[in-house]
């Protein structure tokens, strides 16, 4: 448009500068005509330019309002709930049939590690319900709270409550609070993601089910393509095999090292070695003496537990959706030395104590078609020969310590489970449990486990 | 003990690599990062073309690789929700945490389809952010690549010029290829198809395919034979011309349906590495278009 107006102006200017050789009247008339023409063009050009500017304005406004509308649409109403943490709940329940009374469950040859190791009850029952909250605290920390609600009542239990750094750098991660210890393989996993309805015997006898620490954990990942992860934990005692020492010092320490990698596209593995060191004081357990009277004994001293773990996972082309196989096993060795006090509330005799105990489980779980898995697990423990100074010195007969009598518990478990989605699982499990020296317990579980809400990724 | 300390010291003393270390969750973004970065990047791809990206475990090798990554390229939109958050946490790597420039989510660069209006797990494996399978439309590759180039340039300014030059060359070839594919795929416009998993809304949008049914009753839920039988009757009127299934999925349901409905089953590579020909991004679409057009004959 500008080009047109320049051309018109140039043309009119050229005409206006023509010499006045022709008739002046004609020339003037022509000049008038050109001036009118020029004026009229200029007016029309001005009008057009004004309309253009207006149109541009309108387009800009439309664009702005469209942008504002998009932003408005993507904005949620301001609310405190916008920062709610991820919430999940795990529900589980089972029908359990047991040939032996679960109230008299014990693992022969091993000091009872607490009262939560046996099957809960016979018949129908709900398992522990679990509620979890987790979110990033800020740019530095992440927080996780897991609450277990035992079906018998008795109040909620804090399973986990910890904060974790979001990348300290150089592969280090620091955790503080109550957390599942990083020793072994299964210990770091929540029970709802276990492959069997209950923990391996070795976990029950050596760790009272699962080791949770109140303390701090430092993990470091090496900058290598082969995974090399080193971990150390410092904690205050409490759960088996430690005791609460009412001490300012660190009374539970763990060290662990794990390696892991891929073998081709289809297989991957992880293996590790861990040490749990603690010094229990007056770790009490109940027993029945030779006269049939109930007595409470207590152990004090030094406890070292070594755990070697390995897992191998295979799936065709590394795609586990159709078929996959997981082989897994862990070996435990525990050495305890110190003193044993007999009948602390009565006779209260004390003598030396030493035990070397070991145990392992090995299992294979095969997903033979989508959603269906079958698994077998073998458990074996060896109590070794527990050396009790009071017996050796001839002060008391060995029959006063029936729980410590040498025994090799074993168990065979077979399971079949069906997981319609990653949020639900139904499981059938049979076990022939020879934990007790005197009886074989045939156990059957029919179990469901489901998860609601935000569900975090499962660990390897 | 001394050996352990020496080992630790030698690990710590490893020289910092000059090339930008990129961790791609799925093969398409790994391939794209290679096109942009050329020899100036080190790309590790967490999954192969025959693996279901929804169901990958945060296995040790991935944790080790994530620890050293300068840039993590993910699809986002919760495709990797089952394993990526764990990987980020376990890696102890501050560069790839959410909100850092070292985390790039491809789905943020394109307009998402199938954003659910109802969030309920009874609806199956749905993604609140929309359908994450954005790589099946080559125009999305263009949008993601442009943004990825700039992100890489931001993280490694010294190589920025090389990235931009590579991207310019790639995007010109890519645009020419899109024109070629569109011309070749013209007969596919308006063709009714059945899909096994709702994995193709972007491909359908690009080529004008008409999805008349999905074999999964709900996303991620496998169809029973009874359900397939009912579906067969329902879609008979729509006369679908083919059944689409991604290479990483079991084709059983699609094969049954194809046999019963007498329509060809088209197994598309879906991502780089999905089959022999899909060696790179060009191969992926060359092969996909050939198979789709071939199924019409």
Give the gist of this structure.
The complex is a heterodimer of chains A (460) and B (297). With 460 residues, chain A is of the alpha+beta class.
Strand content of chain A: over 45%
The strand line-up of the biggest sheet of chain B is 2-1-3-4
Broad shape of chain A: elongated
Mean pLDDT of chain A comes to: 87
Radius of gyration of chain B: 21 Å
Identify the most extensive interface between protein chains.
Answer: A-B, 50 and 45 residues
Total strand segments of chain B = 8
Rg calculated over all Cα atoms of chain A: 39 Å
Order of helices and strands of chain B: HEHEHEHEHHEHEHEHEH
Biggest pleated sheet of chain A: 16 strands, antiparallel, barrel
Oligomer: heterodimer
Counted by DSSP, the helix tally of chain A is 4
Strand order of the largest sheet of chain A: 1-3-4-5-6-7-8-9-10-12-13-14-15-17-18-19
Number of strands of chain A: 19
- Please tell me the overall pLDDT of chain B: 91
Content-based structural category of chain A: alpha+beta
* General shape of chain B: globular
Strand content of chain B: 5-15%
The residue ranges of chain A in which pLDDT falls below 50 over 5 or more consecutive positions are: 1-20, 67-75
Tell me about this structure.
The complex is a heterodimer of chains A (460) and B (297). Chain A is α+β, with helices and mostly antiparallel strands. Chain A is built from four helices and 19 strands. Chain A has helices at residues 2-16, 24-74, 201-207, 389-392; strands at 86-98, 123-126, 129-136, 141-149, 157-165, 172-180, 212-221, 227-236, 252-263, 267-278, 283-288, 294-314, 324-342, 349-369, 372-382, 387-388, 410-421, 424-434, 441-453. A 16-stranded antiparallel β-barrel of chain A has the order 1-3-4-5-6-7-8-9-10-12-13-14-15-17-18-19. In chain A, strand 11 (283-288) and strand 12 (294-314) form a beta hairpin. Chain A is elongated. By secondary structure, chain B is α/β, with parallel strands linked by helices. Mean pLDDT of chain B is 91; it is low at 13-17. Chains A and B meet through strand 7, strand 8, strand 9 and strand 10 of A and helix 1, helix 3 and helix 4 of B.
